[in-house]
Design a protein that fits this description.
Belongs to the PHYHIP family. This protein has 330 residues and is mainly β. It is built from 5 helices and 22 strands.
Length: 330
């Protein structure tokens, strides 16, 4: 039987967090003969990766020949924001069950995308299931070292400037390494109704009345849900003044929440006043997308311990947790 030509000119497009479309060129004489495609997909390993992880998972997909381009989805457990290399081979299945195969094509590299809104909506639904009842609070607070606040006063015009979010949380979060903001907490102690005296981020705390950051002129977005191999879970929310640069970034990427009625963080009018509540059973990390004036709040030293084990700086999400993972990747 005549040999098959080697596929060439591979094109990858329509890339999502867990799928892609692939096409290539081959000789016209092969088009009617080819019965199967072999696709070899490999995750690009970095120097810190575990070389033994998933080594028993096959990377070669055998697919019946279909008109190109073909969509590859669900054949592997593709991870979001991950670099892969791919090569293809065509084959004719013969009467004895053996395959006549072409040579392997060139190898092409691509990177999968972030979670789309529908994936974040799945994470949101999972977070809602464990959010618990709502507790009242009155201030947002940010813990840090004394030098951080001194630098803001001396070099930043007394403003806390937005900075780029790190890679903590879900690997597919569209905010990681993309969204600028200032992180705040709002969780309170159940028995006192006040912010806890302990912190993983430093002994100095800036407190600001909740209405300064969260009010009917603010949009609230759900951004992520994760844990770090622990029993407690974190939810990341974004507060963005309507029409701001941060608001425009979030509008296309994150689920928008009703500020008066959601399971995580609410601002509602009761007896003519704004009332604020947070979910009891989640640790909320709130990103405010604009600079914050230190003169709008108070700065002081807290009396508790610095619990470094609770820090989420560049924290990696537990990929095995059934509570906070969805099926499209980690």
């Amino acid at each position: 039987m005549e040999l098959l030509s080697t596929p060439h000119s591979i094109e990858i497009n329509n890339i999502t967090c867990d799928s892609f479309r692939i096409s290539w060129a081959m000789e016209n004489s092969d088009l009617e003969r080819v019965t199967h495609y072999f696709i070899d997909l490999n995750k690009k390993e970095n120097k810190n990766s575990n070389k033994f992880k998933h080594r028993d998972v096959p990377t070669k997909l055998v697919a019946k020949a279909v008109p190109l381009p073909m969509t590859v989805r669900g054949h592997w457990f593709l991870s979001p924001r991950t670099e892969y290399s791919v090569a293809v081979q065509t084959a004719v299945k013969q009467s004895d069950g053996e395959y006549l195969v072409s040579g392997w094509s060139e190898t092409v590299e691509f990177c999968t995308g972030d979670y789309a809104k529908e994936h974040l909506a799945q994470l949101q639904e999972k977070a809602e299931q464990i959010a618990g009842r709502m507790l009242r609070f009155s201030v947002f607070y940010r813990n840090h070292h004394k030098e951080y606040f001194q630098h803001a006063r001396t070099h930043c015009g007394n403003m806390l400037q937005p900075y780029l979010k790190d890679n903590s949380g879900s690997h597919g979060s569209p905010t990681s390494g993309m969204l600028h903001g200032v992180f705040f907490s709002c969780n309170t102690e159940f028995n006192t109704g006040q912010p806890p005296q302990d912190s993983p981020y430093g002994r100095w705390r800036f407190q600001i009345p909740a209405q300064r950051l969260f009010n009917p002129s603010t949009n609230l977005y759900f951004a992520d849900f994760y844990c770090m191999y622990t029993a407690y879970h974190y939810a990341i929310l974004v507060l963005a003044p309507k029409g701001s640069l941060g608001d425009r970034f979030c509008r296309d990427r994150l689920p928008l929440l009703d500020i008066a009625c959601n399971k995580f963080l609410t601002c509602s009018v009761e007896d003519g006043e704004l009332v604020f509540r947070h979910a009891q059973d989640l640790i909320l990390e709130v990103i405010y997308t604009e600079p914050v004036d230190l003169s709008l709040g108070t700065l002081g030293e807290i009396s508790g311990h610095q619990l470094m084990s609770l820090s989420t700086a560049d924290a990696k999400k537990d990929p095995s947790c059934k509570t906070c993972n969805i099926s499209v990747g980690r």
